[in-house]
Design brief:
It contains five helices and two strands. With 144 residues, the chain is mainly alpha-helical. A hairpin with a 5-residue loop joins β1 and β2.
Length: 144
């Protein structure tokens, strides 16, 4: 029976696979989908267009929030994160938008984006979304 062989090491020799973690980390794997989003001969901003779209939308949301359009600004920030999750799901290469594995990125961007949108919709005064059981929960925990 032959030993299981892992990917080649830094010198190109296959190494014996083991279940133990190495004592010294020599290299890290690039996240799935972490390649360039445009060909290498494209200008630098074009190669990273997915993260630039998300960051531009977040910057616009922060500007709106600073200009006292709080609800729309924070909704835009949440929608930008949801858009990042959608791009991470749909596109094979997203450049620097890929930070971790595809699943982890999608869940992280999606949960944070959804939470920001829901909190923006429930913000006082005059919330656009009211969830009745939250008012009852608050009544029993905070109010006297």
């Amino acid at each position: 029976m032959t030993d299981a062989v892992s990917a080649p090491d830094a010198e190109g020799r296959p190494r014996r696979a083991t279940r133990r973690f190495p004592r010294v980390t020599r290299d890290t794997a690039r996240p799935e989908g972490g390649g360039r989003a445009a060909p290498g001969d494209a200008p630098a901003p074009a190669r990273q267009w997915p993260i630039l779209v998300v960051l531009s939308a977040v910057a616009l949301g922060l500007l709106l929030t600073a200009l006292d359009v709080f609800r729309l600004g924070t909704i835009l920030i949440g929608v930008a994160l949801l858009g990042g999750a959608a791009m991470r799901w749909a596109l094979p290469d997203v450049g620097m938008l890929a930070v971790r594995s595809r699943f982890t990125d999608m869940v992280t961007y999606g949960v944070l984006g959804l939470a920001i949108v829901l909190l923006a919709l429930m913000a006082q005064p005059r919330p656009w979304l009211e969830i009745p059981f939250l008012d009852d929960t608050l009544h029993f925990t905070v109010r006297t």
